[in-house]
Design brief:
The structure is a single chain. By secondary structure, the protein is an all-alpha fold. The protein has one domain: Four Helix Bundle (Hemerythrin (Met), subunit A). The chain has 5 helices and no strands.
């Protein structure tokens, strides 16, 4: 039970610290960048649908887990505001990856998702820099 409480409060028994949030945001940025590369391959018809579906699902699971951890953590002040933005951003990344899962062979979808994920990775960089 104590480990659940520690996880919900940021892992240290108190409110989430900026460095903990930064690591979470950096994870979201990394996942968005990886997804962007996958989407670019889709847009260029350089990968198989089965691989796209599996890899996009794995990436979405990773970013969903990060969103859950961030949403569960307690935070105050500026960290709380940025944390809320990071949770929303993780959900957007997950949604874009879901589009790849549904349309793994569509060039136009791949190009559109690549653009979205590039923008989300940049937004994550901005959030991380704000900490």
């Amino acid at each position: 039970m104590a480990s659940i409480v520690a996880l919900a409060t940021g892992g240290c028994g108190g409110p989430m610290r900026a460095d903990e949030l930064k690591r979470g945001i950096d994870s979201i940025a990394s996942t968005a960048s990886d997804g962007k590369l996958l989407a670019q391959d889709v847009s260029r018809n350089r990968t198989r649908s089965t691989f796209v579906r599996v890899h996009a699902r794995d990436l979405a699971d990773d970013v969903d887990h990060e969103a859950e951890k961030l949403a569960d953590a307690q935070a105050r002040g500026a960290v709380a505001r940025i944390k809320a933005q990071a949770v929303m951003l993780a959900q957007q990344v997950s949604s874009a990856l879901g589009d790849l899962q549904v349309m793994p062979g569509d060039d136009a979808t791949g190009a559109q998702v690549a653009r979205r994920l590039r923008a989300y990775a940049a937004k994550a960089g901005d959030l991380s820099a704000a900490l």
